[in-house]
Amino acid sequence: MASVVSSKVTLAVPLPPNSPPHPPACDTLSYLRWRSADGPPSSADADRVLVAQPGVFEGAGAFDSIARNTVSRAAELGKHIEFWALDRRSNCLEDHTGIHTALRTGSFDAATDYYFRGAEVAGHRFAGFAEGDATAWLRDQGLAQTLRDEYDVLRIEFPDQVVRKQKVMCGGHSLGGFITGYFAGWDFDGDPETTDDAGYNQCSGYFALDTTIQAGLSLRGLQVPELPAPVGGLVEGVSLQLETALPVLRLPAVINPETTNLLALAGLAARLSPDGVNDLVRRLPDNPNIRATLRTLLSQDAAMFATGRPDVRQLNATNEAVLGAILDDNSQPLGFLQASLGFPGGGPVGPKSFPVPDELARSPLAMGMFGDASKASPTIYDPSTVYRWVDYDDTAGLTAPDTRPYTGPGSEVTAIAELARSLSEPPLDFTEWYFPTRLALDVQQTSAPSFAHHHIHSDGVDRNPILTFRTSGGIPVADSGSPQDEVVQLPGYNHLDVLTAAARQNDGRPEVVSTRLADFATGH
What we know:
Elements: E1 4-12, E2 28-36, E3 48-53, H1 64-76, E4 81-87, H2 97-105, H3 108-116, H4 143-157, H5 161-167, E5 168-173, H6 175-185, E6 206-209, E7 214-215, E8 218-219, E9 222-223, H7 229-245, H8 257-272, H9 288-298, H10 302-307, H11 319-327, E10 342-345, E11 349-351, H12 358-361, E12 376-378, E13 388-391, H13 416-424, H14 437-444, E14 466-471, E15 486-490, H15 497-500, H16 512-522
Parallel strand pairs: 3-4, 3-5, 5-6, 6-14, 14-15
Antiparallel strand pairs: 1-2, 2-4, 7-8, 8-9, 10-13, 11-12
């Protein structure tokens, strides 16, 4: 593979003067930039630049593997492209000091002591997770600001609109695809007669990573009626009350700032010591959020969830096996958090029926919320048994009868070591602590009056070609009837695999998403 270098780019772009009080760091925009090591150092000289919007609870670091693989593939074709992953402003509230210190020193304790035990690093202590007044300003970080931020990054880095149109391709993963669709239909000066500032004139094509590119409430090939103006106004008013009360989208367990940081720590433990045993689990604090999260994700059945017996903390597993148990599609219950990483080894497993049994999880009623892989769980909680992780490209060696119904080489695509790197090493993280509620609400009700002034190019999506990648449980994509569009089906992939799949797959072929994306970007 061609060598790829990555860097963090930060631009000074203040929020509007009437914005609520916020930290100075939030008057900047940041993105991760990947480029070929032997390519031009200036983005202006790149053959193409792919710009990606992250999904819900995702930061720019989530694109680490797909960015590296795509840039490398393009270099093999003789083209020097770049991949940029945008980071939302809300991530300015995050404190990565513990993670970065552990990576620099090689000590996992440096991270856990900082986040859990009040340890000081370079005169600084972790202040806790932001809430209340510290997050109130996020009520303004909705769709309009998110789109303006992307436009400002492109405008600053490529001041000439003609160059932007020729060089840039826009896309995203999950929610990022919908945001890209709105970007295509947005007019950034509010004047429908001048189109240089129209979103579709900032990009030469679109890419959708297990999502769809949407303009307004119209999917190409599928029309969805918009809400009447009075109804849209009512919905907007209700949404405003909700986003004011809950500016950050969080739940009492599983999805909240503390638990999304735990994913980075799980990746860090597996990165620093793949075969170490329970390095994260034995250092975790004992609080209601952590207890409920561990039980929800790892309980084998409802009785185990209700009683806490056996205690999931008593399971002996390597750091890679812990990470696999949290995110692998044979264990993680939520479809949007699943990747195909391999399978646990070193001990027996049994069916995992919590939070829902396989029959219900795979039924039409579940609507893909839980993925389509059968769930399994370790069954031995004994110091003499240490579960390890069998990587994606080694599952053919699994011979125990109780592993055969769950997996095989054709349904495993992501290397756990690469996922551990992506979760912990990029300077902008994989998992987002503070996802703005306003953004999720705006995407669902853009027919409301406050969007009418800018969201005026309803055919913006139709102006450029779209390359869509879809997993088996992904959003249905209607045939657009346009010869410039293409939909690539991804058997064996889960929602996260679209971003994390290894460069070489079990069939011996190059990874399909990065390969086709590089071909799209280079014109092959």
